[in-house]
Amino acid sequence: MLITPLLLLCVAICLSPTASVIDDFKANFQPQVTLRTWEQAIAMAKSFIAQLTLQEKCHLTAGVRGTCAGNIGSLPRVNFSGFCLLDTPSGVGDGVLYSTAFVSGIHIAATWDRDLFYQRAVAIGKEFRGKGVHYALGPMVNIDRNARHGRNWEGFGSDPYLSGENAFFYTQGVQDQGVVATAKHYICNEQDTHRSGVMKGANDAIVYSANLDDKTMHEIYLWPFASSVVAGTGSIMCSANEINDTRACQNNKTQNGLLKGELGYMGNILTDWMGSKSTVDPVLSGLDIDMPGNDEYMGYTLVPFVQNGSIPESRIDDMATRIIAPYYLVGQDQDYPTVDLDRDTMENNYIINRKVSRAGMILLKNVNNILPLNSSVNTNIYIYGQAAGQTNCGLEQTSWNANCGGALYQGGGSGFVRPAYAIDPLTALMQKGRDDRLQIRYITNQNDFVSINRTFSDRGFQNAKCLVFISAWSEEGIDRTDLYAFDNGEQLVLTVAQNCRQTIVLVNSVSQLNLERWVDHPNVVGVLWTGMPGSEYGPAVVDILFGDYNPGGKLVFSLAKNDSDFGTDISSIGDSNYTEGVFLDYRHFDKYNITPRYYFGYGLSYTNFSFDKLEISQANDDDKNSPVSLYKQRRMRPYNNFGHSGLYDPVYTITFTIKNTGNYYGSEVAQLYLGFPVQAREPLKILRGFERVYLEPNESREVALVLSRKDISYWNVVNQQWIVASGTHTVWISTSANNADIKLQGSFSV
């Protein structure tokens, strides 16, 4: 029942395999409120704070009991009703009703499409606003440093630039709807083992410390948080782990030094739940809000510490101002809805969810163009694997149960969204079978090898296409034990491939997976990475399988041949030493000349593209339609916080031409990698730009990428500032981090 209206709508409106109601969907991207600058918001906040007593100001600094995951208490005397905070980052979380389970962070990043980054965030922001929620506790911008990290599915992958662009447009999309975005978890929360002193399932007092140097901090882990600050985020959540042996939420260097000092951050810092462990040190180190507040480290507890001089009242005023300013910044004083967590605010968000779901799927292997399937010819289809169908345990699976199985729409933990509905691939394929008169057979019990083997003798099997669905789950609180598929999925693939000459594997995974046991099997002729695709999974994957959508997603991490090739892993002891420095993922593979199975940035299409006419020039915004002017227009909001350093000023424009030389409408992601002079001590190449370009067959288009001053700079640990190294900077335009995929090369000298 859930799937029929959507598919009938597409059938009725589709003009071609590449033009549909989904493609034509345009959300209302105009801000829903009158937005303010930080200067305006701070002035209004100070005016409000001036009315408050010391006790009332302190009251704002700690959570209280309430209907939301986090609650800032009301102050009836001054007609302040408080704030509601709820988990995200992939929709309205914490088990509320009528919420869209959007594609996860790792999936939206794989679209490599800033417009889609923003559109998804707009839809998420609308749902939060409609329910009267003031703070969305996202985006999650921690770097995918460890392939086994249980929360990688929430974030944006292994590259700081790509993560930063996602963070920027997530913040912008959510705050344009009047909802405060909350970048998390600040900082270096790249594993959940020993994250906060208690590892799931163990009574363990160890808290891990992420130990790293200054250059690594700035160029990798601080980068996406800096992008959030520049975008104008109103809140940042500090993490539960330690950084260089000091807890994140009472770390003076990272909070006062880096965030509020160096980055000029003007919003508030709130704790991850139970992240605060004392009173005076966290406050003096920059913490503004303690969540959920029942530990009584802050709130009214602060009053005697102010009275005895341990905490200056000016610091309390600063905390209160930072708490109230985002309220005015995004216009929550303008007819903001009352809190009703179960109010239906989904509207037609299934459309954008399906759009981003298929845009983030990645075609990894396509021997002899086995895909797309032609439903008038490929009429005999066999489906294998529990990951094809619906879970046995319902849609509220916030943690893993091996008896449940089923298609995965998202991972688990606080980032889990209770979906109002979810459509699995098997259901969507059955619908396709009915409409196109296909012969479909399936077995979802992947351990029933008696039944599986029996299908190989079926009438007509020799001409069948075999779709094998495998999956890998992870969740907050516990890291993955390995990088293999659930329930021995590798054996399922091999069993089918040994008997079916046209086996297509669909990988429904939270993050990195080891494919080596089966990917080179000669009968595995197609591999589609379906990622963490949200509740429109079924319709989205059918669109790709049958050519109604041309896949164009790209990997946001490398897939290694050996797990040890990554060079980093979860630390089982108290310290996690970031000794790899800035040589993470593809940078590490380049440094040690390691060939992965599939490179960062890799992904195939049903069509082909050519590149030509690379030009590099200094940035110029004299023309309002110039690349630099358009770059600025795309990013500007009243609440931006670009600072005064000129670090984000455009300095170079890179232009080139892309042409679709194939027979399908499709997209290519042009990726700009930059090589630095030796002085900078940087990896061989670093991602510093990208654009996803959609073209009709034989259509060509000029693409312009803009480099900011920060993009061409390195962090100088002696001078403690971003420096542009003297010498030649090499520009590579590529379609992945593989040197063999470089299409154009140029350079500029500074």
UniProtKB/TrEMBL annotation:
Pfam family, one: Glyco_hydro_3_C
GO cellular component assignments: extracellular region
Keyword Secreted: yes
SMART domains to which the protein is assigned, alphabetical: Fn3_like
Signal peptide location: 1-20
Pathway participation: Glycan metabolism; cellulose degradation
Domain Fibronectin type III-like, chain residue ranges per copy: 668-737
GO molecular function, one term: beta-glucosidase activity
Reaction equations catalysed: Hydrolysis of terminal, non-reducing beta-D-glucosyl residues with release of beta-D-glucose
UniProt keyword annotations, A-Z: Carbohydrate metabolism, Glycosidase, Hydrolase, Polysaccharide degradation, Secreted, Signal
Gene3D superfamilies: Glycoside hydrolase family 3 C-terminal domain, Glycoside hydrolase, family 3, N-terminal domain, Immunoglobulins
EC number: 3.2.1.21
Subcellular location: Secreted
GO biological process: glucan catabolic process
Enzyme class: hydrolase
Function, as annotated: Beta-glucosidases are one of a number of cellulolytic enzymes involved in the degradation of cellulosic biomass. Catalyzes the last step releasing glucose from the inhibitory cellobiose.
Family membership noted in the UniProt record: Belongs to the glycosyl hydrolase 3 family.
The protein's name in its UniProt record: Probable beta-glucosidase G
